[in-house]
Amino acid sequence: MKYYLAVDIGASSGRHIVGWKEGEELKTEEVFRFPNGVKELDGHLTWDIDALLSNVKEGIAEAKKRFGDISCMSIDTWGVDYVLLKGDETVYPCYGYRDKRTEAVIPIVHGIVPFEELYAHTGIQYQPFNTIYQLYCDKLAGRLEGVTDFLMVPEYLMYRLTGVKKHEYTNATTGGFINAKARDYDREILSKLGLPEKLFGEISMPGTCVGEYEGIKVVLCPTHDTASAVEGLPLPDGAMFLSSGTWSLLGMKLAQPETSEKSRKANFTNEGGVGYIRYLKNIMGLWIIQNLQKMLGISFGEMVDLARSSSYEKLFDVNLPCFLEPFHIREDILRELGETELSDADVINSVYRSLAYSYGQAVRELEEATGKAPEYLYIGGGGAKNQYLNELTEQYTGKKVVALPIEATALGNLKIQMESCPA
């Protein structure tokens, strides 16, 4: 029996899932789980990258303990964030994308390369945390002096396991400096911004071998978790999908990027997939619910029960920048609703309804941009397990929801491993 290990790390937790084939059926078992989250350091939001690496290694050891030999493994994480290196030395801190440090530099970047030009080249939607703004912030702060490499978070973790540095395509596209048509770093944009060319090495595609760790072959899966999730969803051709987790990503697979003005104004993005473009829109997702859950100290099931008990239907814009930070979410919700106080049930119900409403807006924009109007919306990820949210999504999108409550990201991670290292 050949065993494969998917390490799937999100903004709130990480998990190690072992997969193997029994005939044509893919079997999986979770062997390790650990918490994750940004930490405040000197007024900034950062990732404890050393703790992440330690947890990755601990989970690998547990997988070997449970299953013996592991033939192959890979790591996926959220996009956008990275680690700087001076040779083999890590440059600290590792900033989190929800940190506000880019606010001052975004107008400077757009003064050099207008966003219309950025979008025409890369097809990546505007987000204040895009890697291109983060790196330019590092440049102005002098953090790039003496730096020899930058690696996206999963690339960094695999480098620490293998000693080999690789740049993987799907995650690189989230940064805002990959040319959408050429599917390589856009040297013209990098040159205009004065970002050191030596930091941007050869782009490798999913399935590329990285190296070995304790006898385990390490390969590149689609290291952006959404790219792996889309690979893990059993989607018919032309399907509309929603990857529902901390972030919600609504989109379709396209053969070629869509970088028109209509697409730019609708703030759709063209991220890399395995042989296709993931044309989608980033929506705030369950981040707000996750933070309310921590604040209230109750289960997600209890939150759904509270929401169902509420008749409050007023909506707010879940995608406002104020909701990126975790510290004052309840107060921010009340302010946006124009309320001084609400019950927990009403707050939670408003969040679910507002989220589903934003899905409906994105669906209509997607249909207008592509000229396609599928009947069904396929939902994968943790949010697919939320029946109440699925009901609201049907109500606000007008689509028939097909919920796929599976570990889609881990399945996509494993799928690419198995294709590149067959049994």
Low-confidence stretches: none
Strand percentage, roughly? 15-25%
Sheet having the most strands: 6 strands, mixed
> Which CATH first-tier class of the largest domain would you pick?
Alpha Beta
Question: What is the annotated CATH architecture of the largest domain?
Answer: 2-Layer Sandwich
Q: State mean pLDDT (0 to 100 scale).
A: 95
Compute the number of structural domains. 2
Under CATH, the homologous superfamily of the largest domain reads ATPase, nucleotide binding domain
Number of strands: 22
What can you tell me about this protein's structure?
This protein has 423 residues and is α+β, with helices and mostly antiparallel strands. It folds into 2 domains: 4-225 and 409-420, Nucleotidyltransferase, domain 5 (2-Layer Sandwich); 234-405, Nucleotidyltransferase, domain 5. It has helices at residues 49-67, 106-112, 115-122, 131-140, 153-162, 169-173, 187-193, 225-232, 261-265, 287-296, 300-308, 329-337, 344-370, 387-397, 408-420, and strands at residues 4-9, 13-22, 25-35, 39-41, 44-47, 72-76, 82-86, 89-91, 94-95, 149-152, 167-168, 178-179, 184-185, 203-204, 209-213, 216-219, 240-244, 248-254, 269-272, 277-283, 376-380, 400-404. β19 (269-272) and β20 form a beta hairpin. α11 (300-308) packs across α13. It is globular. The N and C termini lie close together (8 Å). The model has no long low-confidence stretch (mean pLDDT 95).
